[in-house]
């Protein structure tokens, strides 16, 4: 009743003071280095004036890696999306309670495993004499001589998919659990197959959640240094490895930051699509 | 008819069992491979299993002066400092964002998300360059700051949600009974928000324990955390030490994640990001 009789919480000035340290931290450790990277990309290693030499050099040296990065990250995102929808869909529509329970227990494990550990697991698992090849040859699926190392672009995609699918599946399963069941039941009554119900009735209702999960994964995959460094650091490789190499071997911040700006742009494009879509949804 | 139905159920069951087994292999295969390496004494091509098992590598890295012991302690020390720094910043910020009359509140909340929204490598290499001028590269303080900036969004968002979930009427009641602002905060608000604050502390601790990119640019080669030890030993081909480090890193991650549901209650979870 008298909830507002005595003011609760800090006033405007107090609130700003309380948030100030957090804002300073973001300013000093994110906004400032971010601005620094932009300035460095357009000025370093030149005559002190603004120029785009770093970008021409970056494209000249690393155009293959730029393409490689886009392909790997896009492919991984698509595979993660398909698998996450399949897992979450089975959790929602599955009719065998045992299978649903087993799947629920099973799929989450990689979620708890740090990226660097995932990279190490895959480094041993996917190697030429790793467990995957051992099982494949022992069971007679492939000839021992045909065993090959998967520690190239495939290894990076496998590691990303392995690590990120549970995260997206968790988000999507949560969204699927809260949608209106009547549409699903209606689809069932009209005899639609479960696959059709999933694709035509369920997925449209959770599309926003799926997209958020995929965008977050996409940015994470563009940021992770340990996985490409440990799975496949030879050429062609991902931009994150090139940036680290440019700095550690040449101290060349100009080109490294030009590559960094490109990786900002890759996330920028996706963020723009997302914002446009969500604005459309709100407008509709 | 009956036979056809039976055989179709049978086919379904077999497909189900096969799919689940394949998934189980895809998920636990890599983990098993790591566990084998962690206890392998001798293992080389073309042998499919280790030739000798044992714990001599464990003894080597867990001697008081062993490199895993040192890396583990420096990881835990850095993670604890990161939690202290993050909470010291996130508790006031979360309280203000949940209760205060904050201009541009939505924008400020979004601002904390920025470090997660851009590729971290590009930012961290410049942080390292800035830190170099401040003599922070290769120092624990520098690494703690980088880790804290990575964890800040979780710390602030969860703390905000935790404070928002506290009933404002209770605070008003304390104030009406004559308690000052500070007393109300320490005796009423903070204890009620504590589970959520603990959850954010756990998140930050884990982020710091597992962080690689920032440590690679800012800390290396002077600050050796467990992920750094894992990385260098793996690149040197020392899979035993890399696998032992992996295993140690898994324990807190899995443990805390199983534990965190106790701290992160549904009412707080529903408010995260609002």
TrEMBL record, chain A:
Belongs to the binding-protein-dependent transport system permease family. Its main location: membrane. The keyword Cell membrane applies. Residues 66-274 form the ABC transmembrane type-1 domain. PROSITE patterns: ABC_TM1. Keywords: Cell membrane, Membrane, Sugar transport, Transmembrane, Transmembrane helix, Transport. It is a multi-pass membrane protein. PANTHER family: BLR7065 PROTEIN (PTHR43005), SPERMIDINE_PUTRESCINE TRANSPORT SYSTEM PERMEASE PROTEIN (PTHR43005:SF1). This is ABC-type sugar transport system, permease component. The keyword Cell membrane applies. It comes from Pseudovibrio ascidiaceicola. CDD domains: TM_PBP2. InterPro entries: MetI-like, MetI-like_sf. Pfam families: BPD_transp_1. It comes from the Bacteria. Coiled coil: none annotated.
TrEMBL record, chain B:
It comes from the Bacteria. The keyword Transmembrane applies. The chain crosses the membrane at residues 21-45, 76-98, 110-132, 144-166, 187-207, 239-260. InterPro entries: MetI-like, MetI-like_sf. Residues 72-260 form the ABC transmembrane type-1 domain. Its main location: membrane. Keywords: Cell inner membrane, Cell membrane, Membrane, Transmembrane, Transmembrane helix, Transport. Belongs to the binding-protein-dependent transport system permease family. PANTHER family: INNER MEMBRANE ABC TRANSPORTER PERMEASE PROTEIN YDCV. This is ABC-type spermidine/putrescine transport system, permease component II. It comes from Pseudovibrio ascidiaceicola. The lineage of its organism: Bacteria, Pseudomonadati, Pseudomonadota, Alphaproteobacteria, Hyphomicrobiales.
